[in-house]
Design brief:
about 350 residues; mainly beta; Neuraminidase; 5-stranded antiparallel beta sheet; 2 helices; about 45% strand
Length: about 350
């Protein structure tokens, strides 16, 4: 399909806030000029064939946001969903999203467009291209070898398409040429995984740690050959209400985990930022970002000064809020806001 068929620039009133019956599943990124970019999806009465992806930006650290700048809205019964924003090592802004015929057709597809100069006022990007079957809603990881790993999944749920049977796992794809080519590398089989939504972290000893959403919380698998093979999946002992989480290495070298903590009965509440100084073996520092119920699906980015921007959704079908928090490691260590510019429960109201 050509770009203009389903990637819409400067979209009209159809996609404005007052015409959205629900919204959620956001992502966030910051380009080198300090601009924040956010993406989420909406459309129709809920998750289904009318879904489209929205992209907005903020040039004042999230105080105000633009109207939708880009909408990905495929024709017919094909839906666009699960967007992911990522800035690569040379500063290009990537937007990934999934497309499927209906809610899930058994194979899906990860698509992307790339803006090579996101600091320009006029947004321009490559033609969309499909990089793999499946879904990728969490950011790629750049290894110490400079290779890029992409956490992609083909859901292990109905309908089960026979030619996809070898890919119904938590997959890893690799690029050794800065995204020009992206190829299958390996897969992990984590029992009771739920929509996968896995993330990857390269640990300081060289192994890759994969965390996966499961029905019991968060499962894990490790690779000792940079993502090609994975040991049998197991319970990571990190609890969770069967929902998305976010993990990343911060510029300090510490690990950040944003996950639900202290919740009850799988209620998506008490979204909490946690810090580990020992490669994820313990998480002694905790800051509650939002204690309310119906809080979910965090994503985050860190700026050059160590400021952490967290995005998540609140009450997708009621309040329909896309929310943001601005925090630092000092806040997490203190268990409360201590940094001058930090703030919780910021609504992205566009």
């Amino acid at each position: 399909m050509e770009k203009e068929c389903f990637v819409i620039f400067n979209p009209g009133s159809k996609y404005r806030k007052e015409n959205r019956k629900w919204q959620g599943i956001p992502g966030i990124e910051q380009t080198r000029d300090g601009t924040l970019w956010a993406a989420w999806y909406s459309g129709g009465d809920g998750e289904g064939p009318d879904n489209y992806v929205i992209v907005v930006k903020s040039t004042d650290q999230g105080k105000t946001w633009s109207d939708p700048l880009i909408v990905v809205d495929p024709p017919g019964t094909t839906r666009a969903f699960d967007p992911c924003l990522w800035v690569d090592p040379v500063g290009k802004l990537w937007l990934f999203w999934a497309m499927s015929d209906g809610w899930w057709d058994g194979k899906g597809g990860v698509w992307t467009i790339v803006n090579e100069n996101p600091e320009n006022k006029e947004f321009s990007c490559s033609n969309p291209r499909k990089i793999a079957p499946g879904i990728m809603m969490n950011k790629p990881v750049v290894l110490s070898t400079k290779q890029w790993l992409f956490p992609i999944a083909v859901w292990n749920r109905e309908p089960l398409v026979p030619e996809m049977s070898h890919l119904r796992f938590s997959l890893v794809y690799i690029s050794s040429d800065s995204g020009k080519t992206i190829e299958f590398l390996g897969s992990a089989d984590v029992p009771q995984r739920s929509c996968d939504e896995h993330m990857l972290v390269e640990l300081k000893d060289g192994k890759i740690w994969m965390l996966v959403r499961t029905s019991y919380g968060i499962g894990e698998s490790f690779s000792y050959d940079r993502g090609k093979s994975w040991n049998p999946g197991r319970n990571s002992q990190i609890p969770g209400p069967d929902s998305r989480f976010h993990i990343r290495r911060l510029k300090s070298g510490n690990l950040l985990l944003i996950n639900h903590y202290g919740f009850k009965d799988k209620v998506r509440s008490h979204l909490t930022a946690m810090l580990s100084e020992d490669e994820g073996n313990s998480w002694p520092y905790k800051l509650v970002i939002d204690e309310r119920e119906k809080i979910s699906y965090p994503d985050a980015t860190e700026d050059r000064n160590g400021k952490i921007f967290v995005i998540y959704d609140y009450d997708r079908y009621g309040a329909k809020k896309i929310m943001m928090a601005v925090i630092t490691e000092d806040d997490i260590k203190a268990g409360r806001i201590v940094s001058r510019d930090s703030k919780l429960k910021i609504a992205i109201d566009v």
